[in-house]
């Protein structure tokens, strides 16, 4: 069995030129060989790469695989022999039960479908204001700064009660530590500044609670340090993911004009179109888990303590799960993509993200019927694969006036 195993040597690995929406070629090739490949982390530590839909989903559902930060190897960092500290209080993305549940449970009721639908009108208003500004300024425009970033950032800041005047500063800090192109020093500086800001925010809410998620958590037994960590996770996850979906999604629509035209012509397509863009783009592309005990997986034994890299983007392009997986088809009916993950860490903000995308994409298409790229597609600057979330750095567009 092990002779036929495929080995992937370098991660992260680049996308093929001219294929900005497809997962890196090496990962697609790996999936073709089978759903599980060998991979060696820097420092020579053995690991695995999982690229097939069924296996990725089964790892996510299996609590023998841990999300704990201190157990995780990283493809870009040689941490052999290094002591990795556990995730700080409140940063529950990188924790297992019961620590994880202590933070996730009080938030679940705040992010339900019903609660998020109630936000629709506000999201419509914020979107319309930004499209007004784009239209007024006239072509060309960068849709990253004028549309994709501000909409989710205002929404998550309002939900959490971040005052309006602090938002610019905040967005810059988050951009710095999630953009994937920052020196270690700048990264640490941005993280420290964000922590400092959140400490002030939590203290302000403690002293003077307002009508927002953070203030609501003040009457639980969560400490200020824990609340700070929770706020950090929500803000970081809430800004960057949806912003990149909106920007890369618009790039994809402008590169597939027949699909954009079909959506413009049929607003009833919106729910399916958003799910298809999530599947096709999979901006949250890779997460990791570490085996807590020996686990049999795909005919291999994953030894206790070994980290597996889960490729969500190739799982969402698995031909055994999705027909013509590399085709963007906004009418596609077979859902069940893994763009929001699966299992106990499945995206807490997915209903919020859906509301934002279901409002923002159709509003943009509707407002600018002749919207198109202002530069050749090859010149659109993409985020490097080292960024946790994939996307475009800027999206120059133009339209007829
Ligand atoms: C299109 C936009 C988004 C995408 C693609 C996305 C994707 C994901 C994925 C894949 C995970 C699972 C990570 C894992 O398996 O370890 C996750 C977790 C999470 N997401 Fe999102 N997300 C999006 C928007 C949001 C928004 C708007 C929020 C804001 C509230 C949010 C908050 C979170 C949180 C708090 C977690 C951690 C959940 C846990 O560990 O229990 N996400 N997201």
Automatic annotation (TrEMBL):
<dbReference type="Pfam" id="PF00067">
    <property type="entry name" value="p450"/>
</dbReference>
<keyword id="KW-0479">Metal-binding</keyword>
<dbReference type="InterPro" id="IPR036396">
    <property type="entry name" value="Cyt_P450_sf"/>
</dbReference>
<dbReference type="InterPro" id="IPR002397">
    <property type="entry name" value="Cyt_P450_B"/>
</dbReference>
<keyword id="KW-0560">Oxidoreductase</keyword>
<feature type="region of interest" description="Disordered">
    <location>
        <begin position="1"/>
        <end position="24"/>
    </location>
</feature>
<keyword id="KW-0349">Heme</keyword>
<dbReference type="InterPro" id="IPR017972">
    <property type="entry name" value="Cyt_P450_CS"/>
</dbReference>
<dbReference type="InterPro" id="IPR001128">
    <property type="entry name" value="Cyt_P450"/>
</dbReference>
<comment type="similarity">
    <text>Belongs to the cytochrome P450 family.</text>
</comment>
<feature type="compositionally biased region" description="Polar residues">
    <location>
        <begin position="1"/>
        <end position="12"/>
    </location>
</feature>
<keyword id="KW-0408">Iron</keyword>
<protein>
    <submittedName>
        <fullName>Cytochrome P450</fullName>
    </submittedName>
</protein>
<keyword id="KW-0503">Monooxygenase</keyword>
């Amino acid at each position: 069995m092990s002779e036929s195993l495929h080995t992937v040597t370098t991660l992260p690995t680049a996308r093929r030129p001219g294929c900005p929406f497809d997962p890196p070629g090496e990962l697609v090739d790996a999936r073709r060989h089978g759903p599980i490949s060998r991979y060696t982390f820097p420092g020579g530590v053995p690991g695995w790469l999982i690229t097939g839909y069924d296996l990725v989903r089964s790892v996510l559902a299996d609590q023998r695989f841990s999300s704990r930060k201190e157990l995780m190897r990283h493809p870009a960092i040689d941490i052999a022999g290094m002591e990795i500290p556990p995730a700080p209080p409140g940063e529950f993305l990188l924790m297992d039960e019961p620590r994880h549940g202590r933070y996730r449970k009080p938030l679940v009721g705040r992010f339900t479908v019903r609660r998020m639908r109630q936000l629709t009108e506000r999201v419509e208003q914020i979107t319309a204001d930004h499209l007004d500004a784009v239209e007024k300024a006239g072509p060309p425009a960068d849709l990253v700064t004028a549309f994709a970033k501000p909409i989710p950032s205002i929404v998550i800041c309002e939900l959490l009660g971040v005052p309006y005047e602090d938002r610019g500063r905040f967005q810059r800090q988050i951009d710095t530590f999630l953009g994937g192109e920052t020196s270690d020093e700048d990264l640490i500086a941005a993280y420290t500044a964000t922590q400092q800001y959140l400490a002030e925010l939590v203290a302000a809410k403690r002293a003077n609670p307002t009508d927002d998620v953070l203030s609501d958590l003040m009457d639980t037994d969560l400490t200020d340090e824990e609340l700070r960590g929770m706020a950090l996770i929500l803000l970081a996850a809430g800004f960057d993911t949806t912003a990149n979906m909106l920007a890369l999604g618009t790039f994809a629509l402008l590169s597939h004009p027949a699909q954009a035209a079909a959506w413009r012509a049929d607003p009833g397509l919106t729910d399916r179109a958003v799910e298809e863009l999530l599947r096709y783009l999979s901006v949250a592309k890779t997460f990791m888990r570490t085996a807590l005990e020996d686990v049999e997986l795909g005919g291999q034994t994953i030894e206790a303590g070994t980290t597996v890299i889960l490729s969500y983007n190739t799982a969402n392009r698995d031909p055994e799960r999705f027909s013509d997986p590399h085709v963007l088809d906004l009418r596609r009916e077979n859902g069940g993509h893994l763009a929001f993950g699966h299992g106990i860490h499945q995206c807490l903000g997915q209903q919020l993200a859906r509301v934002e995308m279901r409002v923002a994409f159709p509003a943009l298409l509707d407002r600018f019927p002749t919207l198109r790229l202002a530069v050749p597609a090859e010149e659109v600057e993409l985020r490097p694969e080292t960024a946790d979330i994939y996307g475009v750095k800027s999206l120059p567009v133009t339209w007829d006036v």
